[in-house]
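subagent[fold] <- orchestrator: predict structure for attached chain, return tokens only, no commentary.
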Amino acid sequence: MSDKIDSRFSSDKLRMDVPEQRAVEPARIRKRRKHFIQFPMTWYERLKGADGQTNRVALFVCYESWKSGNEVIKVPNGMLGMDGVPPQSKRRALRDLERRGCIAVEWRPKKSPIVRLLM
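subagent[fold] -> orchestrator:
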């Protein structure tokens, strides 16, 4: 009798085959990878000695400005977060870019800052 119970309740019969899961890549990032960034040489000179997050935010601001065709853009946390820039680093980098004379920032409480590029 114990043989019948063992064969009916085999662990192989209870196993679920789970398909391998892959991380889904957002379409915006796939599309963005095909683009280039025009970067002003004056910024290149002004950003000498800046940290990596400041450079990353500078590239993001240039890209968004080119994409929108506007020198005034909002800088939300979403896409920068996907690029590995947390909100605190974004604020610090925007202050650094402002101090270096690359951008002018309109700080708004509990809203994304508005950035104007200075060439």
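orchestrator: received. Logging for downstream: The domain at 37-119 is CATH 1.10.10.10 (Arc Repressor Mutant, subunit A). The radius of gyration is 24 Å.
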